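Bit of a strange request maybe. I'm writing a small parser for structure token strings and I need a real example to test against, not something I typed by hand. Could someone generate the tokens for this chain?
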Amino acid sequence: QLGNLGLVCQDKGDLDRAEKYHKDALDIDKEIGYRQGEASDLGNLGLLFMQQGRFEEALSYLKQALSILDRHGLTHGRDIILKAIRETEDQLGHGEDTP
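Reply from user aminoacidic:
Good idea to test on real output. This should exercise your parser:
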């Protein structure tokens, strides 16, 4: 599985290769209509971008993942996505405590 290879690369610090694997997995899941996989791929990309400090991109991918999950009534990974969105918004100064 390409997504799993992306996660292994991410854990090893090979972030460029991880991004490629996650994007390749996303392309395939979109093509075959596998919504849970698509949401997972988007979430993995969002988490990767958070790790790289690319918070605007991270937020975009995470929100896309959440939208797919909600639109299709999927729950697997939803809590992780919501937590990551909150953390990313905090990094961007969009959190609840921000005036």
